[in-house]
Amino acid sequence: MPSSFPHHPSPGRDAALDLIKWLALLTMLIDHLRHAWPELYFLYVPGRLAFPLFCLAIAANVARSRADDASGVTARYLGWLLLFSLVSEWPYRLLVPTAESLNVMPTLVLGLLIANAVQRVDIQARWLGAGALATAVLAHEWLMFGMFGALLPAAFLLALRGSRARWLLPMLGCLAANYWAPFYADAARGDPFAWSVLAMCLFAPLLGLLLLRCRPPFPVPPVRRWAYLFYPAHFLVLVALRNL
């Protein structure tokens, strides 16, 4: 998740983008409360906002880099992402000992590389993106949100670069990334909770894209590199609270 927290290449900051990052952090925390207190399982619904908002923030930052810029964004942030992918795994396993996937950071690492390959024209970026895509396909079962989650930042990037018709790409991509057969079976039976989850997955990208186009009428504090640490730290805090 902190992969969406790079500094902007331009001197100024985008308040709308910072707002999206804050919302992503907040909804992530809300979602994970259910691991400490299982009776809060209904928080799974608003929690579906977090991942697409992080992916949108990645896409927005990649879009700010010039397609012919040899430095791109990958070299600047990839080390931080890889580091916190490793650092976060143990705290994640403490909070979710039955987890069948890695923490979300490896998915976002691959997503950044794939989106960067879509944005840039140099051969190095394209090869890194192709490698990331192949890894996402092969590691689909171990990635949180699977290969479709790794493709979501690129889908957002295409939506930002094209007409509003392209907004369907991240909307459908978010549904695919959150696919879980029992929810579709429950939805087919008319279960309100299942329909709430599917609706949130479908419309979360649309909400993010609309927010990105707006100027917040209030000051938004910047989200800086401390957000990398927030990801593993909030796991440890929730584990401590659960054990009280």
Write the SSE topology.
Layout: H1 15-36, H2 44-47, H3 50-64, H4 74-95, H5 105-119, H6 123-138, H7 146-161, H8 168-177, H9 181-188, H10 192-212, H11 226-242
Helix pairs in contact: 1-3, 1-11, 3-5, 3-7, 4-5, 4-11, 5-6, 5-7, 6-7, 7-8, 8-10, 9-10
Report the biggest beta sheet as strand number plus sense, adding barrel if it closes.
none
How many structural domains does the protein architecture include?
1
Along the chain, the helix and strand elements come as HHHHHHHHHHH
**Shape category:** globular
The poorly predicted ranges are 1-11
- In percent, how much strand structure appears in the residues? under 5%
Mean pLDDT: 91
In total, how many beta strands? 0
The rounded distance between the terminal residues' Cα atoms is: 27 Å
Helix segment tally: 11
Alpha-beta content class? mainly alpha
Question: Rounded to an integer, what's the Rg over CA atoms?
Answer: 17 Å
What is the helix content?
55-70%
Pfam families: TraX (PF05857)
Protein name: TraX protein
Keywords: Membrane, Transmembrane, Transmembrane helix
InterPro entries: TraX (IPR008875)
